[in-house]
Amino acid sequence: MRYPKRIGRLSVPRRTAHLATAALLVAAMAACGQDDGANSSAPKAPATIPELTKDPLTLSFIWFDWPPAHALETFANAEYTKERPNVTIKVNTVPNANWHDAMFTQFAAHKTDFDIPVLDSQHIGEAVTNGNILDITDFVKKNIDVKAYNPYLLAAYGQFPQAETGKRDENASLYGLPLLGDTWTMIYRKDLIGDTPPKTWDEMISVAEKCQADNPGVSGLAFHQANGSDAAAVTYNTVNGLYGGNLWDAKARKIEGVINDAAGQEAMDILVNKMKPLTAKGSGNWFIDEVNAAVAQGKACIAFNWIAASGALLDPKQSTLGSTKEEILDKLGFAPLPSQKTNLVPLGGMGMHVSAYSSKEKQAEALNFMKWFEQADIQKKWAAAGGVPARTDALESPEFLNAGPFNKVYTESVPRMRDMWNVPEYARLIDIENTNVNAALNGAKAPKDALNDIAKEQQSVLDSSGRKGGGGL
Amino acid sequence: MSDPVSLTTDRPGQVASTTPPAPGRSRHLSDRWLAVLFISPALLLLLAMSVFPLLWALYLSFTDYSATRGGPATFVWFGNYTAILASAQVHLRALTTLIYVVGAVALQTVLGFSIAYLISRRTHGRGLLTTLFLVPMMLSPVVVGLFWRFMLDAQFGVINSMLGSLGLGQVEWLTRQQTALFSLIVVDTWQWTPFIMLIALAGLTAVPKYLYEAASIDRASEWFRFRTITLPLVWPLLLIAVLFRAIEAFRLFDLVYILTSGGPGVSTETLSFHVYKVAFLGFNTGTASAYGILMVLIVIVLTQLYLRYLNKLKED
């Protein structure tokens, strides 16, 4: 018997192959072109909440993984279901570093597995410009008592364009409502530096320096320095604000010459040459958890962290400062940030928004949830459950003020807040600032060079809208 | 029985079509169409998952398209390519990537081959030792990154604790420019040395024993045997392992993301990490596509040059 000498290749005519390739290219271009008619501005939510479904429904949030996210899920499932028993609340969480990407990659696909994205205040510009969230101006007018809020909080978590003056523009559109207010608190060791917190930033540095010298093994300061998220950038922005600097001239869209002016240079010098030497070795990649760990382990005299993340400091299981909450509070004090040339503090916290890609049924439920959540008695309950409300009556309520030793700090800090740029280019601006401040803090760049690079690179991002090719580099 | 001559033809496709279908098969379903039918699911999957995205990325690389901004994709032709090639930011990341690839692959090759050589000389416990050495390779890079991050922590990490017990000072492994890239190389080496070791071991065990026996009869020294028998025979296989590792190291992302986030500053940002930032911070999809295409081209060109060298080595 004879066997085939070789198996021949299945021949595909060259013309067919060319046609197939061309078809693929056309399909690729057609698929890409599907977005041609996409909206470039946010669609409007109805002023009145449409009829709600009686069928079982899950309303999904997306947030980053931290205690307030878990508190919200527990709180909403316990309270909102009293009004809407057919609704389950699910708060999906992602690591902080993936938070922006997790939301905006789904926005890019024009399909979201969440109905209420919890956006950082600076993400609003990007989401509004791309038409990813609903314009809820009419809904707010009809359903929300806007006078109950500090106008700046309402503006910071919902208004676009940004409240440049720090005051709400009543004619501007609203795209979100406050979910969680936040700012930095100063955490200090009462047993090491005394009961009275320092009043000025310069005094704070001197006190930390003395404390570090007097207590071997304990560093003077602990603060955010990491190059992920907005960690190092918020630290610099805080010092910049306190020493009289500005991040930009919003009207002229000018950063070069503003952030790196004399006040900005002084702030960078204070941060790198006076504050950094008082931190623990290797703390150049610290963020929220690492700062909390240093405080809980008794390794820092003075620390700065977001109020909403400070609850863990009172947990005896995670602390070496005491075996009960009272013992811990004998050693730890919480105070608003010291002032210097100004008294500005960073605005933290987030608003809730409605995904433009959710079903109408879920959008209606989301609007109903927002209306429910912003009621005075619910805001007080949210405060008691560990949240930081935004309504003035809730902020001044005993439910909030007695819920945590740092809550009074928040109420006192509200009139002092300053936010960053709320523009569509935010993600790139914050990355430039974060990486450069982190480089300066870790000795990879001279402080002056780092600040000048921030100014130059950020300005080029703002100026690059008309550039042909290479955007994003 | 069918005519055996028809099976030996050099044009089987043509002959196959004239073969009568098997009993029970449709008269219209020839062998050729049956073959097309069988390979089409795999082919369609390949087209949908690999070829189509690649072509789409190629198309997008000539536009200013943004995945989130929507709107029409305007052609900028080679604008993205020229901007990338001229960018000082990209040059910096390319240099970092080059240092990383050369450092990591060189270290892994030396260590991997040394371990394989030592294991190959053992007669007992070789299998167990090989299996134990392979464990790091089986772990997810994210898991590896996370536990090395804890181990390298300057304050609480076990590495500094060990250095402290030896009377040495604390080292800021992940937050200093001088040590951060070195730490990445060390972690990558810990994970991927076993890969080189495994291939080198396969090469070493394939060296014919009689060559060593002949060398022993000639009273050749250990070094002489290694230099003239072992190394020349294992070398081509080792070079293939180096090629695989170099391609892998070139597209490093996960360890950087977990261990340093590209810091301090941007001093450990590799090309892949930079592409990620371009693609997802501001969603400059067109630029990111061009960046990705350029990286693929670099790998293809370098691989071709390397393979030519390998073939030449084989011919020699």
UniProtKB/TrEMBL annotation, chain A:
Pfam families: SBP_bac_1 (PF01547). It comes from the Bacteria. Belongs to the bacterial solute-binding protein 1 family. The keyword Signal applies. This is Carbohydrate ABC transporter substrate-binding protein, CUT1 family. PROSITE patterns: PROKAR_LIPOPROTEIN. InterPro entries: Bact_solute-bd_prot1 (IPR050490), SBP (IPR006059). SUPFAM superfamilies: Periplasmic binding protein-like II. It comes from Microbispora rosea. The lineage of its organism: Bacteria, Bacillati, Actinomycetota, Actinomycetes, Streptosporangiales. Coiled coil: none annotated. Keywords: Signal, Transport. Residues 1-33 form the signal peptide. PANTHER family: ABC TRANSPORTER PERIPLASMIC-BINDING PROTEIN YCJN-RELATED (PTHR43649:SF34), ARABINOSE-BINDING PROTEIN-RELATED (PTHR43649).
From TrEMBL, chain B:
Pfam families: BPD_transp_1 (PF00528). The chain crosses the membrane at residues 33-62, 74-92, 98-119, 131-151, 192-212, 224-247, 288-307. GO terms for cellular component: plasma membrane. Residues 1-26 are annotated as: Disordered. Keywords: Membrane, Transmembrane, Transmembrane helix, Transport. It comes from the Bacteria. Residues 1-19 have a biased composition (Polar residues). GO terms for biological process: transmembrane transport. InterPro entries: MalF_N (IPR035277), MetI-like (IPR000515), MetI-like_sf (IPR035906), Sugar_ABC_transporter (IPR052730). Belongs to the binding-protein-dependent transport system permease family. This is Carbohydrate ABC transporter membrane protein 1, CUT1 family. It comes from Microbispora rosea.
